[in-house]
Amino acid sequence: MSTVSDILKSIREVLLMQSQVERLEGQIDEQNNELKQVSRDIIALDRRVVRIETMIEMSARGGNQPRIEG
């Protein structure tokens, strides 16, 4: 009987570990999605900063540059 109970105990432990691995996989997927969103946000912010820097540089030059009007 001891051998059978040891086998059953081991099977239970394996099933518990499998459940924990599946839960961890779900958490990893969620974090991966959040990281992708953070990356998109950083790219968007970088583009905005570049536009702001360009506006500052253009205004620092003064009105010496001719403007194209359309």
Rounded Rg: 30 Å
Which of globular, elongated, flat, extended, rod-shaped describes the shape?
A: rod-shaped
User: Strand fraction band?
Assistant: under 5%
Order of helices and strands: H
Helix content: over 70%
User: N-to-C terminal Cα separation, in Å?
Assistant: 92 Å
The total beta strand count reads 0
Largest sheet: none
| Mean pLDDT over the full residue set | 91
- Which residues form runs of ≥5 with pLDDT under 50? none
Q: Which class do the helix and strand fractions yield?
A: mainly alpha
Task: Enumerate how many helices there are, as a single number.
Answer: 1
Concise description?
This protein is an all-alpha fold. It is 84% helix and 0% strand.
Can you characterise this structure?
With 70 residues, the chain is mainly α. The protein is built from one helix and no strands. The protein has one helix spanning 2-60.
List the helices and strands and how they pair.
Layout: H1 2-60
Structural features:
70 residues, 1 helix, 84% helix
